[in-house]
């Protein structure tokens, strides 16, 4: 029994080592990626349901390897969070979006930026320096919408909430992302003042065939309305979903039905078509 235990231990540690050396490799590559400017932002339009106009987009990161292959965030964000590199990557994302906003001379257009809880919880991240950069860039602060998830509430830290307040007092907007999936959705709404909630795509997927999803989405929309929050449905793929969401009074929709995430240039083309036709 004892030797059995030893060998289990051996395999266990070996598996951990493989995992951590893999992590180390990705972490090194992430650091290089920042220097080599291998990250890119793509933008997915967010459509106003009342008139079909595009005034917003969510920025989403991509990693273009030297081989040309494009890595999705699910392949590297977790490792970036665990190694703390998310702070530098997040600063890069922020600057990139700020420049993008400067290139769009239309004060009604806003861009959403995903912030990871690990980023806000790091003392290396400075909300004050973001605030200063927004002022230097002469961008209306409400053109930046920060998307945070409910998991951020897990930190329950003064650091996180004070950073959010600095950015809110500066005029930036906040969106509660993946709404309905966390363990403390309602507590998040109680503790912080959000401007938008984004209803997670898992509730939207079957909306047109599942009466239970329909009840859940109506309840979320009613609650948002009661709190004075705007609503965005994520992962909208079909015309039936669009029809239902409109009927139910959802404000905005985002998903493949309208567009996949596109390059900065493509998004600007879509903007000018949507707003001048
Ligand atoms: P998220 O914030 O929930 O982003 C929405 C995800 O849904 C995106 O995946 C988007 O491409 C995908 N999506 C959009 N429309 C549809 C649709 O109609 N159907 C389906 N099935 N999916 C749709 P993506 O780009 O792979 O991003 C995954 C996650 O990575 C994001 O989830 C976000 O949590 C994280 N992420 C992305 N960019 C950043 C970033 O710049 N910083 C940080 N910290 N996290 C990021
Ligand atoms: Ca998001
Ligand atoms: Ca989401
Ligand atoms: Ca998500």
TrEMBL record:
Residue ranges annotated for the EAL domain, each copy included: 23-275
Keyword Transmembrane (UniProt): yes
Glycoprotein as UniProt keyword: no
Coiled-coil portions: none
Domain of life, source organism: Bacteria
UniProt keyword terms in alphabetical order: Membrane, Transmembrane, Transmembrane helix
Protein name: Diguanylate cyclase (GGDEF) domain-containing protein
Taxonomic lineage from the root: Bacteria, Pseudomonadati, Pseudomonadota, Betaproteobacteria, Burkholderiales
């Amino acid at each position: 029994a004892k030797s059995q235990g030893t060998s289990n231990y051996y395999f266990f540690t070996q598996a951990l080592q493989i995992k951590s050396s893999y992590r180390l490799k990705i972490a090194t590559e992430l650091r290089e990626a920042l220097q080599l400017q291998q990250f890119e932002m793509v933008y997915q339009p967010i459509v106003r349901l009342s008139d079909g106009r595009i005034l917003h987009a969510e920025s989403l990161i991509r990693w273009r390897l030297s081989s040309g292959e494009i890595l999705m965030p699910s392949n590297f964000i977790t490792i970036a969070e665990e190694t703390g590199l998310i702070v530098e990557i997040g600063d890069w994302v922020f600057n990139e979006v700020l420049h993008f906003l400067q290139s769009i001379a239309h004060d009604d257009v806003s861009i959403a930026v995903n912030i990871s809880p690990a980023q806000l919880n790091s003392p290396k991240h400075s909300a004050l320096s973001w605030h200063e950069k927004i002022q230097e860039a002469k961008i209306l602060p409400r053109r930046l919408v920060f998307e945070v998830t409910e998991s951020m509430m897990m930190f329950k830290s003064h650091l996180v909430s004070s950073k959010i307040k600095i950015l809110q007092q500066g005029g930036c907007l906040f969106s509660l992302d993946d709404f309905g999936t966390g363990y403390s959705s309602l507590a998040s709404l109680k503790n912080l003042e959000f401007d938008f909630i984004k209803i997670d795509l898992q509730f939207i997927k079957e909306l047109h065939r599942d009466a239970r999803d329909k009840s859940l989405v109506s309840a979320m929309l009613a609650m948002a309305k009661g709190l004075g929050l705007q609503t965005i449905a994520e992962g909208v793929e079909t015309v039936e979903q669009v029809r239902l969401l409109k009927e139910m009074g959802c404000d905005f929709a985002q998903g493949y039905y309208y567009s996949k995430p596109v390059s900065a240039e493509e998004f600007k083309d879509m903007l000018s078509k949507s707003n001048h036709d």
